[in-house]
Amino acid sequence: MKSSAAAWVHARAPAWRELSRRIGALRKRRSISVGEALGAIEAYRNVARDLASARRLVPGTRTAAALETLFAQIHATIARHPSGGWSGLLSVLRDDIPSVVRELAPRIFWMAALMGSSAAAGFWLIATYPHLINLIASEEMIQHVEEGKLWTDGLINVTPSSILSVRILSNNIVVALFAVCSGFLFGLGTFYLMLVNGLMLGATFAFVHQHGLAERLFEFIIAHGLVELSVICIAGAIGTAIADSLIRPTHATRRESFRVCVRRAAPLMALCAALLIGAGLIEGFVSPDPVFPLASRIAIGVSYWFLMVLTLGGWLLRRPRPGGAL
Amino acid sequence: MDNEQYTIPGITGVDVSLPIAGPGSRSYAFIIDWHIRVVLALAWIVAAMLIEFGSLRLPLESGKRGVTFGFLVFLAPAIIYFFYHPVLELLMQGQSPGKRMAGVRVVTVSGGTPGTGAVLIRNIFRLIDCLPMLYFVGLITTLLSAQRVRIGDMAAGTLLVIDERVPSRYLELDGAATAEAAVDFTTLDLVEQILERWPSLALDKRDAIARALLKKALGSAEDPDALDDDALRARLVTLSAQR
Fold it and tell me: Is the minimum CB–CB distance between A31 and chain B shorter than 8 Å?
């Protein structure tokens, strides 16, 4: 007697063979045409039907397992996230990031306030108890300042600017990303990082102020520091938003809420990293170079900060208004 | 033990079932990748030292040149360390060499290949997963979470599944022969499986299985109990050729 399952496999095998080849080729490509995508969806329907039959007629066989594999491969192909390309990037910069920044604005303000307060606390601490600087600064740094020199003096003669930049920017990016990621610990990691950074900044300024070097430190910091500190505050704001998504979930589960929050903030994180690259380059090439006078350092720092604000607010790439002035 | 399954409701009403990779497969893949990174980094450092100094010694030279050389020597390993996973997971569609060897793959919660954003997020969150050391947080989360995911996967909406790839040759059946065969399709499939595993099975076990299969396939037409090991195999091969 002829097996009905065998007859069915016989009838369908050529179609599966062809489909397996087609899907294999599609999976290797980064992008596919609309026609190919529609073909894959049609194939998905057909294989789903065949798989349902195979699960009933030939369960546990390798033919059924191979069909499961084929089905999963077609599913992965049609569920692939579309690549936005340049227009997608433009849309992210123009719409997504400004919308997230507007949403985070109160948090950014409070993070800046937290950092400012902890900096003030650090300044007061060292101004009142100068010996506590040993807890914050390294021996080498303390020795430099006590000799009337900044630890940044002559830096450019020892380390090439390019290397200095890469070291600084990678360190800053890690700090910013850590401020974001540690929001997962219900915000405790983010708050700790912001407090410590503010405290160290204030304490260092108090210490150099005691030795009459505060102006020179300001001169060193101003070109890169405005953007650097702003980005750290933004990273802290993202971290607290992540913490909030876990404490007060906005979706059915905390996990879903966390995922949605991170995905929404991810483009802003990427932009922050890009801004820190720029700040790192300034810190490596401009800040330690005595050739640049204070006025040009302020001009660079303020201009870069305004560029950051324009980008974050979406004003830099704003669409022209329809029907506006010609 | 059977793998846990991650089921995605399909739009057609037929679910997609993906076997979830547990902490074991995940750790195995990570250890392979870690060793690859170490070997690549060491190869770079050794090559750089041999080119610069003609011998294996650390750059003791002071001044800009020494700093530059030291930096360049250690920059490449740092790049390899930090960009290995994101770059390869993007290029290899959710896999890295270690994951490929361990037979696992990263997929999104909807079953698709992860995009750039998802890959970057899952790798950035390694900062938390690796705390306080040796991926302790990641391992604990993997053990406790339903889909065996670490925090990076939760953030990115991804999970690690076993990349079960049953070869497409099992779809390429000789339909004509199968249609005419008097033997049940499922039995023929079992015959092929036993033939594939024949050399790795103990003699008495494989003979017992072969006899049971032949009895099921041929009924009372033949008496497989009278056949020895070689004859049993030959009979199974003949039967398999009906496909």
Answer: no
Q: What count of residues does chain B have?
A: 243
Assess whether pLDDT exceeds 50 at residue B243.
yes
| Chain centroid, CA A141 distance in Å | 32
Contact assessment for residue A308 and residue A230, using Cβ atoms and an 8 Å cutoff: yes
Res. B235: pLDDT tops 80: yes
pLDDT of residue B159: 95
The alpha carbon dihedral of B195, B199, B201, B206 has a sign of: positive
Nearest to A80 by CA among B123, B118, B6: B118
Per-residue pLDDT, averaged over A295-314, amounts to 95
User: What are B69's two structure tokens?
Assistant: 């050389």
Q: Which helix (H) or strand (E) holds A63?
A: helix A62-78
Which of A58, A71, A81 has the most B C-beta neighbours within 10 Å, making it the best mutation to test the interface with B? A81
What's the burial of B230, exposed, middle or buried (CB within 10 Å: 0-12/13-18/19+)? exposed
User: Following DSSP, what letter does each residue of A263-276 receive, concatenated?
Assistant: HHHHHHHHHHHHHH
For residue A48, give the chain B residue with the closest CA: B14
Helix, strand and coil content of chain B, in percent to the nearest 5, comes to: 65, 10, 30
Cis peptide before B132 (omega within 30 of 0): yes
* A-proximal residues of B, 6-65, CB under 8 Å: 8, 10-14, 16-18, 63-64
What pLDDT was estimated at residue A224? 94
Cα–Cα dist A208/A196, whole Å? 18
**Single pTM value for the model:** 0.82
pLDDT of residue B180: 44
Q: Which residues contact A83 (CB under 8 A, 6 or more apart)?
A: A30, A31, B115, B116
**CA pair distance A122, B1, nearest whole angstrom:** 57
Q: Which of B51, B90, B55 is nearest to B69 (CA)?
A: B51
Beta strands in chain A (DSSP E): none
* Chain mean pLDDT for chain A: 89
